[in-house]
Design goal:
Layout lengths: L2 H15 L2 H21 L6 H24 L3 H15 L8 H15 L7 H11 L6 H12 L2
Helix pairs in contact: 1-2, 2-3, 2-4, 3-4, 5-6, 5-7, 6-7
């Protein structure tokens, strides 16, 4: 089932149960999907585009929550964190850090990478392989630590 179909199904459930947080979050996702479709001029999004969209939305919510938290607006930060929980359910199962390390090690060996000069190549492949399954910051920090040895 495509992301848009999943969102529509969840929207119906949220409307029936009158779950305001879910309803708001799902409407945000639907809005972002429509915007992306309009920008690309394509009526169907591929799975990679959908994953990128969800990851982008989660990152935006995390950044907002951190800003609200630093300004003492815990009510708004909590709202953003609740939205992250709703939006995250549309991502594939997240990899454990040990699994990310294993994948990065394999990529480094396959590319014969030997230093920070190869970070771009390694990051490109690692990001592609783990799209939606791992946070970019986590991947980046693991790649940096492996290549700077």
């Amino acid at each position: 089932m495509r992301l848009e179909e999943k969102i529509n199904e969840k929207l119906k459930v949220a409307m029936k149960s009158k779950d305001k947080i879910s309803l708001e979050s799902l409407r945000l996702i639907k809005s972002e999907i429509l915007l992306l479709k309009t920008k690309s001029g394509n009526s169907k999004l591929n799975e990679d585009d959908e994953l990128r969209l969800i990851q982008k939305m989660i990152k935006q919510r995390k950044d907002s929550a951190n800003i609200y938290d630093s300004k003492g607006r815990n009510d708004l930060a909590t709202s953003e964190l609740n939205q992250i929980k709703i939006i995250s359910q549309f991502l594939p199962k997240q990899l454990a850090e040990s699994e990310i390390v294993d994948i990065v090690d394999k990529i480094i060996v396959d590319l014969n990478a030997s230093g920070m000069k190869d970070m771009g190549k390694v990051m490109s492949l690692a990001s592609q392989e783990m799209m939606g399954k791992a946070d970019g910051k986590t991947i980046s920090s693991i790649v940096k630590s492996k290549l700077s040895l």
